[in-house]
Structure formats: structure tokens, C-alpha cells
Design a protein that fits this description.
Blueprint lengths: L6 E2 L10 H9 L11 H14 L3 E5 L2 H12 L4 E6 L3 H4 L4 H6 L2 E5 L9 H7 L9 E8 L9 H13 L3 E5 L3 H8 L3 H4 L5 E5 L10 E5 L1 H13 L8 H13 L4 H16 L5 E2 L6 E5 L5 H10 L2 E2 L5 E5 L6 H21 L1
Parallel strand pairs: 1-11, 3-4, 3-5, 5-6, 6-7
Antiparallel strand pairs: 2-8, 7-8, 9-10, 10-12
Helix pairs in contact: 1-11, 2-11, 3-10, 12-14
Bound molecules: pyridoxal-5'-phosphate.
Length: 344
């Protein structure tokens, strides 16, 4: 639970910086990062580039911004990128690529496993014709809705994109969860991508920030967009220190979040009125009878459990959710639905 005693299952963005992370932030040496002077930002960028096997990295305030910078690097005005209907870079970033980048998204249906079918990718690449936007990039997301895209799919999709002259971007907000789940290294998890955005503020537990990975030239070009978008920060080393702490301490432990999600799903699956998906990582969905939602919301609030309850309820585990918290949540759901069945 969080220090205020709540069990918050809405997202892994809700994690509080630990005492040790706060201490690292307080002790960080800093400089003006717009001048490139901040030693902690530089150390974070170098470390992230090394971990993921890229030439360079760029620290930015959010994953929305690192994704937008990447798209603006890969695509110019009147170009388009191929992207999943369910993808963050299409659906949850306020239309930023179109609004701020003059870039047209070409959304494509996601398959049930979260992938975009290779045939669809091939079919949506437009011929060179003045009627069409120029198809310039393929953007994938891993994990997507908690689902892991496997290495065979990713290498086929990125190879297809490259054969057709497209750049490849990975929204790897939770790519560390994917790597831990697959038991592979971070470099292997991002192989085939020209650029990758990684969130430090999700399961890794930092309060703020994402890194964009790419070639040195890509990152240099991205710095201009970051400044233009208002992401040039000054003594940002205070924040980068949290990111460094997260990369050093909080990757392997994502396995605990996956185990807690699995335990939570097992417990909830015992409740007859719920339909529970099997989690692959730290995010999964349950189906709640619509008639039960309002009362369930009240009971959870009384029990100091936060969840975005609806017919399709997303549940997320993270470093502020313990095995004991999982037991409590299962107990509260179980008791609620025992009563609800009787009263219904
Ligand atoms: C959280 C998230 C982002 C970036 O979100 P910010 O809140 O802007 O940092 C990007 N993609 C995915 C899949 C995410 O979950």
C-alpha cells in the first residue's frame, strides 16, 4: 500500500518514490541540462543507452513527449505512421502527432494478442502516389494492455517495416516488464527498433520521466523537438537521479509485480460473478457485472482500495502492492460478491 494506507490498483504510475530513491534525489549533483551540464541527466542517458544497446538517449518529462519526439523525428509534415488502434501513441496522447507534428496516424486493428498482423502492416503501407500520405514509420507497443509481444513477431514486423523503407519505433513504456517476463535481456527486448521510449515512472517507480533511445544523430535531432515542446529542463538531475535509482534497483523486482498480479487473478477467479483474464505481466482485466459496479465502488472506497471499476476493470500491480495487499483485495471482493449474490 501507499504511505497513506491505500491499495491503489488503478495504474503503476501511482508508485511513490521510496526513501532510498528520495535520498538519491536529494544527493544528486545537478547542472543546467539545456546546456548539457547536468551530470546526473548525462549519467542517466549514458546508462540507459548502454543498458538497451543504443548509441544515445534523451531524458524527457513524459512518455507522451518521448513518443511524440520520436514520431516527429521519423515523420515530417504530411507523412504517416502505422499504429495499433489500441496503442498509446494513437489513442492516449491527445492526437499529439497530428496536432503538433502534422503527422497522420494510420491506425490498424490490434489482434487479440496485442500485435498488428503482418499482412495488415504490408497492406497499409501506401504506394508512392500524390494522393496518399507517405508511410514512414511503424510504431509498436510492448507490453500492450499488459500483453507481451514475443521476439519472433517483433523481428518479423520490424524486418518487414525495414524492407519497405519504414522506420521502427517501440513505445516501450513497460518494455522492462516484457523483458523480465520473457527472461531476456533489455537489448534483446528492443532488437529491431530504430527508436524506443521507456517510462521510468511506471513500474520502475520514479516520480517523473522517460528516456528516448536511438542513434546519436536521432537524439541530437530529438533535442530540438524536446526544447520546442517545452521539455528542456534545467536542474533535472534531481529527477534523473530517481531514474538512475530505478534502473539500478527496480527492474528485476518487476517479477514480484507479475507474481502478485497472477495471485490476484487466481484469487478473483474464485469469485463466480467475475470473469478474470490470465495476466501475462502486471496488468490484467476482469469483467464485473454492470449491476454490481456502483456498490462495488463504494465498498472498495470504504476498504481503502482504489480501482477504476467498470464492466471492463483494469487491475495493475506495482511496487506499492504487496502479497498481503493482494490477499486483502481478494478477501474484499469475495465478501462483496457473497453478499451481492444473496441480495440480488
Ligand atoms: C504511460 C504510457 C506512456 C507515456 O505516458 P506519460 O504519462 O506521458 O509518461 C506511453 N505509452 C504507454 C503504453 C504508457 O502506458
Amino acid at each position: 500500500m501507499t504511505p497513506d494506507g491505500w491499495i491503489d490498483l488503478r495504474s503503476d504510475t501511482v508508485t511513490q518514490p521510496s526513501e532510498a530513491m528520495r535520498a538519491a534525489m536529494a544527493a544528486a549533483s545537478v547542472g543546467d541540462d539545456v546546456y548539457g551540464d547536468d551530470p546526473s541527466v548525462n549519467r542517466l542517458q549514458d546508462m540507459a543507452a548502454g543498458l538497451f544497446g543504443f548509441e544515445a538517449a534523451l531524458f524527457a518529462p513524459s512518455g507522451t513527449q518521448t513518443n511524440l519526439i520520436a514520431l516527429m523525428n521519423h515523420c515530417g509534415r504530411g507523412d504517416e505512421y502505422l499504429v495499433g488502434q489500441e496503442a498509446h501513441t494513437y489513442k492516449y496522447e491527445g492526437g499529439g502527432a497530428a496536432v503538433l507534428g502534422s503527422i497522420q496516424p494510420q491506425p490498424i486493428a490490434n489482434q487479440p494478442d496485442g500485435s498488428i498482423a503482418l499482412d495488415d502492416i504490408a497492406a497499409y503501407i501506401k504506394p508512392d502516389d500524390m494522393h496518399f500520405a507517405r508511410t514512414r514509420a511503424l510504431a509498436l507497443e510492448n507490453t500492450i494492455g499488459g500483453r507481451v509481444l514475443g521476439g519472433a513477431y517483433l523481428s518479423a514486423a520490424t524486418a518487414l517495416a525495414h524492407e519497405r523503407g519504414l522506420a521502427t519505433h517501440l513505445d516501450g513504456a513497460r518494455v522492462c516488464n516484457a523483458a523480465v517476463k520473457l527472461g531476456i535481456g533489455l537489448r534483446e527486448a528492443v532488437a529491431g527498433f530504430d527508436s524506443v521510449s521507456v517510462c521510468l515512472s511506471k513500474g520502475l517507480g520514479a516520480p517523473v520521466g522517460s528516456v528516448l533511445l536511438g542513434s546519436r544523430a536521432f537524439v541530437e535531432k530529438g533535442k530540438r523537438w524536446r526544447k520546442m515542446l517545452g521539455g528542456g529542463m534545467r536542474q533535472a538531475g534531481i529527477l534523473a537521479a530517481a531514474g538512475l535509482y530505478a534502473l539500478e534497483h527496480n527492474i528485476a523486482r518487476l517479477a514480484d509485480d507479475h507474481a502478485n498480479a497472477a495471485a490476484l487473478a487466481r484469487g478473483l477467479a474464485q469469485v463466480a460473478q467475475l470473469k478474470v483474464a490470465t495476466p501475462q505481466t502486471n496488468i490484467f482485466y476482469i469483467e464485473v457485472p454492470p449491476a454490481a459496479c456502483a456498490a462495488l465502488r463504494d465498498v472498495l472506497a470504504r476498504e481503502r482500495i482504489r480501482a477504476t471499476v467498470g464492466q471492463h476493470t483494469r487491475l495493475v500491480t506495482h511496487l506499492d502492492i504487496s502479497a498481503a495487499d493482494v490477499e486483502k483485495v481478494v478477501a474484499v471482493f469475495t465478501a462483496f460478491f457473497q453478499d451481492w449474490r444473496h441480495s440480488a
